[in-house]
Design goal:
Number of domains: 3
Helix content: 40-55%
CATH topology of the largest domain: Phosphatase 2c, domain 1
Low-confidence stretches: none
Mean pLDDT: 83
Length: 688
């Protein structure tokens, strides 16, 4: 059977667009020729209008196909495409103006055929610029799109399509209907132009480039609009007016308004760029803290990273670390940007002023204490002191000082506390691991890993009165690689994560500790599920061994809107019970495990979904150990049994549902059965 070649929509549409433009030029030149020779005009204006509309549609098809074909292009390259088209159209228009200026009042300068030819050339390039840039704006507007934004854009496209045919009503005259339509399109364009979610993801350098590109687009748009208006003034359009068109003028308004909004917001976002980049550095530093301690190495390595990371996160002007020696005497092991004499002065001050004088080495709850405030020093005006606690024993303390008053805010304190907690775990791991090597290496290593494993799982799960949540996890070996946690981001908004490291045992537990650190760092940015997976993959790619990866599902639960956004990175599909239909189904969302693809292409494997829930709905998150649990015959528990268990116990509380499901799994495995993998499950039941 003869296989026909697949048509290239882009090439066909641009070829037909050129032919349509030539037909439009021929029709208008014929009309001029008839007029000059005082012949009867046999060509109705509607012919030109139809060809003009056809030209608009073909150009739209060409650019829409071209941009969609390269949908993975980054923000700057998208804007640059608009700049390049705008510069080309501006250069053509400016060249035509210079050409006519050189002709002056010569016969060629007043020739209607020549004028009409250049009028059509200018019309064509202005159309290319406006339609291509509008479609580029579309991709920026629909970045991290919601249903509402998509519907808003679709309505805008319908309005622009209608505006094409408006020419048949008023023949491009500036009457009241034209002005009303233009004002309406401008207001609609302004409402679309507030969708600028892509700007915060630019780096400081990229923002400066985008500002330059947007200024060029604004200048080109202004010049081309002025050039277009000049044709009306000199009477070139006396036969058929192509450019005083509601569609074109509406596109001018949309391109200019969105470029202006983007320029202003990018300009005002410049000061925050360093903060956004700082958060990514913090995530990498956290990964370094969890990765730095290895058997046989000195713990000073992790403490060196700790003080550098903490000073960077808090913009401290000086700092030092003290660790207790064998005789429980504090010894300074790290110092940054502070003279010894001044350091001793500050230590003397700490012994006399609160809250620093309240520090006590012997307290068991020092891991929950932080000391910060103003100090009466002639150089340093504020200070921060935090203990380093290992297994409820204070082993050291870190000082940070700044030359400004009230220099340590809540966010700085939170991230430093996270750094110190991870560093303390790493130091504890180092000390215990070396002790295990000296005595009974394998047995002691497992004890360390168990301690780390217990610290991974939260003691309580964040929630409010609108839903119940409970979790359960048990390792197949002495330690495991399953992890779950929640975080209250805003009033009524919660981040929920569950993950599973490839493999089992000690290596899985340590890899999951890195996942915990990255979660605590990135969640402060309040990213979308898709952005969380992308940034987590970037951080993990630098620390996971090549043959390891992590599967995870990340959820944003908004109890105010009763919505759940989620993305899945190769993890088990989430089970959702819909009370209204009395059915349980698995949520489908594609995704690839973290650490499998370790470059920018990972973004192509991220898919973000959203759905709404109602009262009495239930969400079950679990790891593959549940569904892969086998009975004595080797038969797996499977997805169907899990679904049936949920439906059976749907009327119970979240805690009871979790208990019943785990009971069902253990009954299925049997008394003699040994779990092949870790069991972890979270059950969420919505009360309202």
């Amino acid at each position: 059977m003869l296989k026909l070649p697949t048509p290239n929509i882009g090439k066909i549409s641009i070829l037909v667009a050129i032919l349509t433009w030539l037909a439009l030029l021929f029709v208008d030149i014929t009309r001029i020729f008839q007029s000059v020779n005082q012949m009867e005009n046999t060509l109705a204006p509607e012919i030109s209008y139809i060809l003009e509309i056809l030209f608009f549609i073909l150009v739209y098809i060409f650019y829409n196909y071209s941009i969609n074909k390269n949908e993975n292009i980054d923000f700057l390259n998208l804007i640059w495409r608009g700049v390049s088209t705008g510069l080309l159209a501006t250069f053509i228009s400016f060249g035509i103006s210079i050409f006519y200026l050189m002709l002056g009042e010569s016969k060629l300068g007043s020739d209607p055929l020549v004028s009409n030819f250049f009028y059509h050339v200018n019309f064509a390039f202005i159309t290319l610029f406006l339609i291509s840039t509008s479609l580029l704006w579309k991709h920026l507007i629909l970045y991290q799109k919601s249903k509402k934004v998509v519907q808003q854009w679709q309505a805008f496209e319908v309005l622009m399509l209608i505006s094409m045919f408006f020419v048949f009503i008023n023949e491009n005259d500036f009457d009241y209907s034209f002005i009303f339509g233009l004002v309406f399109l401008s207001i609609f364009s302004a409402s679309l132009s507030i969708n600028l979610k892509w700007i915060p993801y630019l780096t400081f350098k990229e923002k400066w480039k985008s500002i330059l590109f947007l200024v060029i687009i604004l200048v080109c748009t202004t010049f081309l609009f002025s050039s277009l208006s000049s044709y009306s003034d000199i009477g070139v359009t006396s036969f058929v007016n192509l450019t005083d068109n509601l569609f074109l003028i509406g596109l001018f308004a949309f391109v200019f308004i969105y470029a202006l909004f983007s320029f202003l917001v990018t300009l005002f976002n410049l000061p925050t760029s360093s903060v956004f980049e700082q958060k990514l550095v913090e995530a990498i530093n956290f990964q370094r803290l969890s990765q730095s301690i290895k058997p046989g190495q000195d713990e000073s390595q992790v403490l060196d990273i700790l003080i550098d990371s903490s000073m960077s996160a808090s913009y401290a002007d000086g700092g030092w670390l003290e660790i207790l020696d064998k005789d429980n005497i504090p010894q300074m092991i790290q110092k940054r940007f502070i003279d010894e004499e001044i350091r001793e002065e500050i230590i003397a001050l700490f012994q006399t002023i609160k809250p620093f004088s309240e520090f006590d080495w012997s307290l068991e709850d020092n891991d929950s204490k932080k000391f910060y405030g103003k100090i009466p020093h002639n150089i340093y005006k504020s200070a921060f002191l935090i203990p380093l606690v290992v297994n409820k024993k204070t082993i050291g303390r870190m000082y940070l000082v700044k030359e400004v008053r009230d220099g340590f805010n809540k966010e700085m304190i939170n991230i430093i506390t996270t750094f110190v907690g991870q560093a303390s775990i790493s130091v504890e791991n180092y000390r215990l691991l070396n002790e295990a090597i000296k005595t009974e290496r394998y047995k002691e290593e497992l004890k360390i890993a168990q301690r780390v494993q217990r610290s991974l799982l939260p003691k309580e799960l964040h929630h409010n009165e609108k839903f119940e949540i409970c979790g359960f996890s048990v390792a197949a070996d002495e330690v495991g690689g399953d992890y779950y946690e929640t975080k209250n981001l805003d009033e009524g908004v919660f981040a929920i994560i569950i993950g599973d490291v490839s493999g089992k045992g000690t290596s899985a537990a340590f890899n999951m500790s890195q996942m915990k650190g990255i979660f605590h760092s990135l969640v402060q940015l309040k990213p979308s599920p898709g952005e969380f997976l992308y940034k987590a993959n970037t951080a993990l790619s630098q620390c996971l061994e090549r043959n390891h990866f992590i599967t995870t599902s990340y959820f944003l639960l908004d109890t105010n809107l009763q919505t759940i956004k989620y993305s899945r990175a190769g993890h088990c599909p989430t089970l959702f019970y819909d009370h209204s239909t009395d059915k349980a189904e698995y949520l489908s969302a594609d995704g690839l495990g973290l650490g499998i693809v370790r470059n920018l292409n990972y973004r192509n494997y991220i898919h973000e979904s959203e759905f709404q829930y109602e009262k009495e709905d239930i969400l079950v998150l679990y790891t593959d150990g549940i569904i892969e649990a086998k009975d004595e015959k080797g038969v797996e528990f499977g997805y169907d049994n899990l679904k049936a268990s949920l439906v059976k116990y749907k009327n119970l509380s979240a805690e009871k549902i979790q208990e019943r499901i785990i009971d069902q799994v253990y009954q299925f495995v049997g008394e003699g059965g040994i779990p092949d993998d870790d069991f972890s499950i979270m059950v969420i039941k919505f009360n309202s």
